[in-house]
Specification:
Oligomer: single chain
CATH class of one domain: Alpha Beta
Structural class: alpha+beta
Shape: globular
CATH topology of one domain: Dihydrodipicolinate Reductase, domain 2
Strand order of the largest sheet: 3-2-1-8
CATH architecture of one domain: 2-Layer Sandwich
Radius of gyration: 19 Å
Distance between the termini: 24 Å
Number of strands: 8
Number of helices: 6
Length: 200
């Protein structure tokens, strides 16, 4: 299983956490880190999981207390169209972050025209600069909430239920088995079946 980690939810989290957790970051950022009140989702598996138990696509629908809706669609299926972007539709315009950069259309149009350095290099530069300056960057709380947003979407897809933020905050689910050593044998949980898989 460790060699096939991607296909097991206790190791990789499923695609919404392994691949699309950064989109969860974007949603949280757009909502100023205020968590949604509920989520419904659909998902499933079209391509063999090589003995695993994850879905290869999930579409999650989040609702915030002020009525704002957030939609996150994720799939990992070879040969399909792939894109990674954030679209925020507001009353005065639309903001877009995609491979071409960041832009706003509408009442106050704008496009980022500056240098486009590697985001991976920028995050390392910021981290190293903060260490050298003695000003620790601690995004732990944001990372935990973004991860929980993904877990909420995954579990809504797995169970077929509408989940609330309070439900996910108080979940008793434990995916990681009790492992004593490298020879520990166990059977992972079967692939989730919405309507049958229970929320824990």
């Amino acid at each position: 299983m460790v060699r096939n980690w991607y296909n097991f939810n206790w190791l990789g989290g499923d695609g919404i956490l392994e691949q699309a957790v950064h989109t969860c970051d974007w949603l949280a950022w757009a909502m100023k880190d205020v968590p949604p009140i509920s989520c419904t989702a659909v998902g499933g598996r079209q391509i063999p999981a090589h003995g695993g138990n994850i879905y290869d696509h999930i579409h999650a629908n989040y609702v915030w207390a002020d009525g704002t809706l957030g939609f996150l669609a994720q799939r990992q299926i070879p040969g399909c169209s792939s894109e990674n972007h954030l679209t925020v539709i507001g009353s005065k315009g639309t903001a877009l972050i995609d491979s071409r950069g960041a832009s706003i259309t509408g009442e106050n149009p704008w496009r980022y025209k500056g240098e486009k350095p590697s985001m991976y290099q920028v995050e390392h530069n910021e981290l190293f600069a903060s260490i050298r300056a003695g000003k620790v960057i601690n995004d732990g709380d944001r990372m935990a909430k973004s991860t929980l947003l993904g877990i909420m979407g995954r579990n809504a897809a797995y169970t077929g239920q509408q989940l609330t933020w309070d439900m996910i905050m108080n979940s008793q689910q434990v995916l990681v088995p009790e492992i004593k050593d490298w020879n520990t044998k166990f059977e992972p949980e079967p692939m989730a079946m919405p309507g049958r898989t229970k929320f824990i």
